[in-house]
């Protein structure tokens, strides 16, 4: 059990390191649209990791976060979403 737990912790550390290197933010909310997870960074957006528990609409007002926030809102309403991300 200890070995499995250590492997899980190591895996999470590698995942976080990988995500933090991308110029984007991955986030998740609960059903009430309160931020539960925020990983990564993106120029021009607030540091969401300091805002766990706050409502997404309060953090990313309509139109301010571009297509990602709009896609998240649409997905929460039950509409499947896809969008492309291109890195220069």
User: How many strands?
Assistant: 2
Sheet-strand content, in percent, reads 5-15%
- The end-to-end span amounts to 43 Å
Mean residue pLDDT: 78
Shape: globular
Specify the helix fraction band. Answer: 25-40%
Catalogue the unreliable spans: none
Radius of gyration, in angstroms, nearest whole number? 15 Å
Computed structural class: alpha+beta
Q: Mind summarizing the main beta sheet?
A: 2 strands, antiparallel
The neighbouring-strand order within the major sheet is 1-2
Number of helices: 3
N-to-C SSE string, H for helix and E for strand: HEEHH
Plain-language structure description:
This protein has 88 residues and is an alpha+beta fold. The chain is 39% helix and 12% strand. It has three helices and two strands; from the N terminus they run H-E-E-H-H. The protein has helices at residues 2-21, 56-59, 67-76; strands at 25-29, 35-40. Strands 1-2 form a two-stranded antiparallel ribbon. A hairpin with a 5-residue loop joins strand 1 and strand 2. It starts with a helix and ends in a 12-residue tail after the last helix. The model has no long low-confidence stretch (mean pLDDT 78).
Furnish the topology, listing elements before pairings.
Elements: H1 2-21, E1 25-29, E2 35-40, H2 56-59, H3 67-76
Characteristics of this structure?
two-stranded antiparallel ribbon; 88 residues; alpha+beta; 3 helices
């Amino acid at each position: 059990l200890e070995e499995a737990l250590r492997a899980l912790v190591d895996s999470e550390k590698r995942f976080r390191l990988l995500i933090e290197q991308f110029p984007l933010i991955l986030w998740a909310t609960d059903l009430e649209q309160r931020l539960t997870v925020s990983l990564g960074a993106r120029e021009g957006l607030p540091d969401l990791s300091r805002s766990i528990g706050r409502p997404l609409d309060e953090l990313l007002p309509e139109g301010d976060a571009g297509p990602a926030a709009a896609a998240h809102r649409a997905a929460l309403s039950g509409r499947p979403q896809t969008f492309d991300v291109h890195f220069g």
